[in-house]
Design a protein that fits this description.
Layout lengths: L1 H4 L5 H17 L1 H38 L4 H30 L7 H12 L9 E3 L12 E3 H4 L4 H7 L2 H17 L6 H21 L3 H15 L2 H6 L1 H26 L3 H7 L1 H10 L6 H11 L4 H14 L2 H17 L6 H17 L6 H5 L2 H6 L5 H8 L2 H23 L30 H27 L1
Parallel strand pairs: 1-2
Helix pairs in contact: 2-3, 2-10, 3-8, 3-9, 3-10, 3-16, 4-12, 4-17, 4-18, 4-22, 12-13, 12-17, 12-22, 14-15, 14-22, 15-16, 16-22, 17-18, 17-22
C-alpha cells in the first residue's frame, strides 16, 4: 500500500499520463472525458477536505507559534514577507511584459482570430465590480469583491459558500483566542483537533491516488477541446509566463536551500512531492499536507511556522497570480497597440499586486476576472482577459500554483530564522568510534576509603609474609 501511495509522486508516471492523455484526446475522446470527470471528482474531494484542514492546521500553528520566541514579530514578518513576495512577482511580470512584449508581434491571422473571439464575447462579460460594503443581493459573486468577503458577519455562511478568504480571517481570530487559553483548558479540544487533522491528512493522501487519472483526463480534455488557433496565437504569452514562473521558482528553491545549508538538488528532492501535487492537481490546497511535512520533517523548519504559513499561503499568498495578471495586462496593452510608459508599468505592478490578493480563494474564471482590475486602470477592455485567457487557463494553472507554493515555502524558511530545527532524526554513523565509549567514574565515601585502604594494607602484608617464607625455604 505504501508503494501505491508513492505513485502520485512519480514524475515519470505523471509525464506518461500526459502523453497517454494527449493520445486519448486525439483518438479516443470518450475515454479522456471519463478520466476528466474522475479528475473533477478528485478536485471536489480535495476541496472538501481542504477547508477543515486549513482551519485545524492554523489552530495548531497559532498555538505553537505563541510558544516560540517573539511571536508578534514573527507574525508581522510573515505578513510583510507575503506582501513583498507578491509585489516582487508582480514587478517581475511587469518587467517580463516590457522586455518580451507578448502580443506585440502577432500575425494578421492571430489578430483576426483573437478579435473575433473578443467581439463575440458580449459587451459586459468581463465587468468586475468592487464594493467596499455589500448589502442586499450579492449579484454575481465571481465578479464582486466585497469587504464582507474578508471579514464575514457570519462564519457559517462563509463556510457554506466556500469563501476561503473569509474562512481564513475567522480562523485567525478564533485561533488567536484558542492560543491564549491555557493547556489545561484546551486539553480535550487539542485531542479532537489532532484526530481531525490526521484524518483529513489521510483523506487527502488517499485522494491523491487519483492524481494520475486527473493528469490523464486534463491532457485529453485540452487536446480535444482547446482551439488550435488560440493556442497558436497565445504561444508567445504562454512561453513568457512559463519561463518567468520557472526562473522565479528556481530563485525560491535556491533561497530555501541557502537557509537550510543543503544542496539545491537535495532541496528539490525534499520538495518533490508537494511540487508535483501543486503543479498537476489544479488546486492550491491539495499540497498542504505534503508541504508541511516536507518543510518541517525533511528540511527542518519550525513545525509551528509551517502549520500556520502553509494554509495561509495557499489562500492568500498568490505570487503566481500576481505574475500572471501583470503579463495579462501587458499582453492586452500590446494587443491593442498601447505603448507602456513608466507610469503605466508602475500602475500594472500595483494593480496586479492588489488583484492577486483580491483573487484569494478564487479559481478558474472567477480568478481570471480579477485581472480586470489592472486592465480597467489602463482603460483596456476586460472582456479580452476573460475570453482569451479562459482558453489557456489549464496550461497556466500549474506554473501559477507552483510559484505560489514555493513562495509560501520561502516565507516558512525566512520566518523560521533562529528557531530549533524540527528535522526528523536520522541515523548517522560516527566518524570516530572511540568517541562513543562510556567513561566510568568511581566515587567513594570516607568510610569506604578506609575499608579499601585497610584491605590494601592487609593484602600487602600477606604478600610480604609470603615473599619472606618463599625466600627462607
Amino acid at each position: 500500500m505504501n508503494k501505491l501511495r508513492q505513485l502520485p509522486n512519480s514524475a515519470l508516471l505523471l509525464v506518461l499520463c500526459v502523453l497517454l492523455g494527449s493520445v486519448a484526446g486525439a483518438f479516443a475522446e470518450p475515454v479522456g472525458e471519463a478520466a476528466y470527470a474522475v479528475g473533477q471528482l478528485y478536485i471536489s474531494i480535495v476541496n472538501m477536505a481542504a477547508v477543515p484542514l486549513l482551519v485545524v492546521a492554523m489552530f495548531f500553528g497559532l498555538r505553537q507559534l505563541m510558544g516560540l520566541p517573539r511571536p508578534g514579530l514573527r507574525i508581522g514578518t510573515m505578513l510583510m514577507l507575503a506582501l513583498a513576495l507578491v509585489a516582487l512577482a508582480a514587478l517581475a511580470g511587469t518587467l517580463a511584459g516590457v522586455v518580451a512584449a507578448p502580443g506585440l508581434h502577432l500575425s494578421e491571422a492571430a489578430h483576426a482570430e483573437l478579435g473575433r473571439l473578443i467581439l463575440s464575447s458580449g459587451g459586459d462579460a468581463g465587468e468586475v465590480r468592487m464594493a467596499l460594503f455589500s448589502q442586499g443581493t450579492l449579484g454575481t459573486p465571481e465578479h464582486r469583491f466585497a469587504l464582507t468577503e474578508i471579514v464575514p458577519d457570519n462564519f457559517y455562511s462563509a463556510l457554506a459558500n466556500g469563501r476561503a478568504l473569509g474562512i481564513l480571517t475567522c480562523t485567525i481570530f478564533f485561533g488567536m483566542a484558542f492560543a491564549a487559553l491555557s493547556a489545561e483548558q484546551t486539553k480535550v479540544l487539542n485531542g479532537i483537533f489532532e484526530s481531525i487533522y490526521r484524518t483529513l491528512e489521510a483523506l487527502i493522501d488517499y485522494a491523491n491516488l487519483l492524481l494520475p487519472v486527473l493528469v490523464f483526463g486534463t491532457a485529453a480534455h485540452m487536446v480535444a477541446h482547446m482551439p488550435r488557433e488560440i493556442l497558436s496565437a497565445m504561444g508567445g504569452f504562454i512561453s513568457v509566463f512559463v519561463i518567468s514562473a520557472g526562473v522565479l521558482s528556481c530563485i525560491a528553491l535556491a533561497t530555501i536551500a541557502t537557509r537550510t545549508r543543503v544542496s539545491f538538488s537535495h532541496t528539490v528532492a525534499c520538495l518533490r512531492a508537494p511540487m508535483l501535487v501543486g503543479f498537476t492537481s489544479g488546486t492550491a490546497t491539495a499540497a498542504i499536507p505534503h508541504t508541511i511535512e516536507a518543510m518541517s520533517a525533511k528540511l527542518g523548519f519550525s513545525r509551528g511556522v509551517a502549520d500556520l504559513v502553509v494554509p495561509f499561503g495557499a489562500v492568500f499568498l498568490r505570487a503566481g497570480s500576481a505574475l500572471y495578471f501583470a503579463l495579462v495586462a501587458s499582453f492586452v496593452a500590446n494587443l491593442y497597440g498601447n505603448s507602456l510608459s513608466l507610469g503605466d508599468c508602475v500602475m500594472i505592478c500595483a494593480a496586479s499586486t492588489v488583484a492577486a490578493f483580491a483573487s484569494a480563494g478564487r479559481n478558474g474564471v472567477g480568478g481570471i476576472a480579477v485581472a480586470g482590475i489592472a486592465l480597467s486602470l489602463l482603460r483596456l477592455p476586460a472582456e479580452a482577459a476573460l475570453v482569451i485567457f479562459v482558453g489557456i487557463d489549464l496550461i497556466c494553472d500549474g506554473p501559477r500554483n507552483l510559484l505560489s507554493l514555493l513562495s509560501t515555502c520561502m516565507v516558512v524558511a525566512l520566518a523560521s530564522a533562529g528557531l530549533q530545527t524540527d528535522r526528523a532524526a536520522s541515523a548517522q554513523p560516527s566518524a570516530m568510534p572511540h568517541r562513543d565509549s562510556v567513561v566510568v567514574r568511581l566515587a567513594f565515601t570516607r568510610a569506604q576509603l578506609a575499608v579499601v585502604a585497610g584491605c590494601a594494607v592487609v593484602a600487602a602484608s600477606l604478600i610480604v609474609v609470603m615473599g619472606i617464607g618463599v625466600g627462607a625455604r
